[in-house]
Amino acid sequence: MRGRTLSAGIALAVFAGMTVPLAAQPATASPPTATTVTRPIAASAAALAAPDISITNVQAHLTQFNAIATSNGGNRRAGSAGYTASLNYVKTRLQSAGYTVSEQYCSSCRYPSNNLIAEWPGGPADQVVMFGAHLDGVSAGPGINDNATGSSTLLENALVLAAQNPTMTKRVRFAWWTDEEQGLNGSRFYVNSLSATQRGYIKGYYNFDMVGSTNGGYFINRVTSTTAAPLKAYWDSLGLQPEENVEGQGRSDDYYFQQAGIPTSGYAAGASARKTSAQAAKWGGTANSAYDPCYHRSCDTTANVSATVLNRAADGVAYALWQLAVGGGTPTCTGGQVVGNGGFESGTTPWTASSGVITNASGQPARTGSYKAWLNGFGTTRTESLSQSVTLPAGCSTYTLSFWLHIDTAETTSSTAYDRLTVQAGSTTLATYSNLNAATGYVQRSLNAAAFAGQTVTLRFTGTEDSSLQTTFVIDDVTLLAS
C-alpha cells in the first residue's frame, strides 16, 4: 500500500476518507497467526465448490520474493533490479501455465517500469473480471506483506485456475502493478490507456494489497456493494464479520478503476492504523497496535506475515473467482423468505418500530390474522417507522420485496402529496406512496431488491404526516423472497 507522502492531488484522496481508530486499552486476545492452516469446515457448500488454495504454495512465492530482494539491494522498489526480477518470476510462471502475458511500459511512472498483465484464454472478451495487486515495494525493505502477499495470492490463484482449466463464463485478467508506492502510477497509466469500450468490458476490478498483516483485520473495499458480495460471502461463511476498508480508501490500485466508473472491491488486512478493542475481541491480536508493525520498514520480511490471515484471503479470492467467472460456479441460491414475522403475529421481534405501530387495534383491520403495522393516522405532524435488518443470499435469479398496503386518508386533494410512506433498503429509496395512493382495502405492492443480493441491509418503512388531515398507512404480510 502506498504511504501518505504523495503528490498533493493524490494526498487529498487519502485523507478525505481515512480514520485511525484507537482503542482505550489493549485487549488480551491471541494474535491471528498460525503455523499450520487448514481449510475451515464452516465454509458454505458453495465455497467448497472453489479450489482450496495451498497456503504452502503461496508462502513459497513469498520466499522467492524475499530472496529476490536480498539479492538486489534489499528491496523490490519499482524500476529497480529487484522489481524487474520479481516481474520476471511472475511472468515465467504464468507463461509456463498457458497465460497470454504482456508487459506495459509505464512511461509516466516516477520510476518508469512495466506493469504485467496476464489473461486466461477463456470466456467472452467483452465480459472481463480483473484481479490486481501491486508488485513493487518501498526501498526500505523487501516488501513482503506490502505487497508480496497480494502478488503471491493472485499468482497462486492464477496457477490453480490454469491447472484446473474449467469452463469459463467470463474472461479473467490478472495484473501486477508497478510504481504503486509512488502514487498508484502503474494502475493509473493502465486505466488511462483503455478506451471507453475497453473500460466497459471490465465488469469488476478486485484489488489485493497487504493481505497477511500479523496483527491484521478482515477488511473489504466497499463491503456492502454488489461487487464485494462474493468476497464477503466467503468471509461470512467463516464467521469473520468483515468491515469496510476505511484505512485503505484512495490508497491502492482500485482507486483509478473506481474513478473511471468500473465497479471495484478487494481484500486488505490493514497497514499502520491501530486495531481497536472491538476488533481484537472478534479477530484476535493486540488492540491499540498497528495491523502491520513492519509497515514500510526493513522488517517487512516473510516473518511479517500471518499464515491464517493470508490463507483466508487466498481462499476468498478463489471463491470469488469461481463464483464470478467459472462455468457451473454461480453462487448457490439458498432462496426463501428473508423477512422475519412478516405478518406481525409473533409480537414485535425482529422488527424495530415506533411505539404502537405493530398492533391489533380494531380501528384498521389486518389483512390476515389480527396484527398489522399501522403507521400515522393522527392528523398532526408526526413521523413513525418500522424496520428490520435482512440478509439477502447471493446467487438467486430474483429478489422481490412484497407487502400489502392499505392507505386511508382524509385529505381531499387529488394533486398534492401531503403525507408520505417511504420504503427503503439501506439508504436507497425503493418507493414512495402518499395520500394520492389511497384506496379501499389492501393493495399488494412488489419491488425489485436484486441490487442488494449478498448484502445485509435494513428494510425500513417511514410514514410522515403534515399538520392536518390524517393519512393512515397500514402494512401487512411483508415478504422478501429470493429465488
Automatic annotation (TrEMBL):
Highest rank taxon of the organism: Bacteria
Pfam families: Peptidase_M28 (PF04389)
GO MF entries: aminopeptidase activity; carboxypeptidase activity; metal ion binding; metalloexopeptidase activity
SUPFAM superfamilies, A to Z: Galactose-binding domain-like, Zn-dependent exopeptidases
Keyword Signal: yes
Signal peptide from the UniProt entry: 1-23
Domain spans labelled Peptidase M28: 115-320
Gene Ontology annotations of biological process type: proteolysis
Key words, A-Z: Carboxypeptidase, Hydrolase, Metal-binding, Protease, Signal, Zinc
Family, as annotated: Belongs to the peptidase M28 family. M28A subfamily.
Name of protein: Zn-dependent amino-or carboxypeptidase, M28 family
Species, as recorded: Micromonospora saelicesensis
